[in-house]
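Bug report (template v2)

What were you trying to do?
Predict the complex of my protein with adenosine monophosphate.

What happened?
Run completed; filing so the output is reviewed.

Input:
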Amino acid sequence: MTMTPAELAELIRLVPDFPKPGIQFKDITPLLKHGRAFKSSIHHMAEMFKGETIHAIAAPEARGFIFGTSLAVEMGCGFLPIRKPNKLPYETKSHTYDLEYGTDTVHMHSDAVGAGDRVLLVDDVLATGGTMAACAELVGGMGGSIVGCGFLLELGFLNGRDKLKDHRVEVVLPE
Ligand code: AMP
């Protein structure tokens, strides 16, 4: 039987001061190791975008791959990995974005997205929204049409939705 979002929320472990002091890390591994919970989380993500035409799900490494690939199988669409520099073997397109200190870059294979392809973006946690906004810029710049951005959970106080206001944002466990 499918578990409710409230039941899933009990399987998210809060780890204080990881990876550095002051960060409250939302650890999803207790949920992942619970088969019915993991399956239920994918079910809820699929429900959020039911009825949409989706050609592929694109997700950033590493935890985005866990939910992105599972959701792609559930929805019967393709999967497009979004990776850090120097990880993809073929020619890539990239987008560089600002962090608090410095910059970061996301890459996709240059033939991953075709003009007009309907792409759903997925990650585990919506924090500042910087990563997902960069992924959306990359996919949009390649001619993709973004169906929306789906997350398991969000850190509401970081206002990540502000960076994604041009897109539909859905969260299984909203704050
Ligand atoms: P963002 O700040 O939205 O660009 O988040 C960057 C990435 O780090 C996202 O893929 C999140 O999965 C992850 N992340 C950021 N903050 C947290 C946190 N407090 N707990 C767990 N994951 C986080």
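What did the reviewer find?
The mean pLDDT is 97. The pocket of adenosine monophosphate is lined by residues 23-26, 60, 63, 123-131, 155, 160 (CB under 6 Å).
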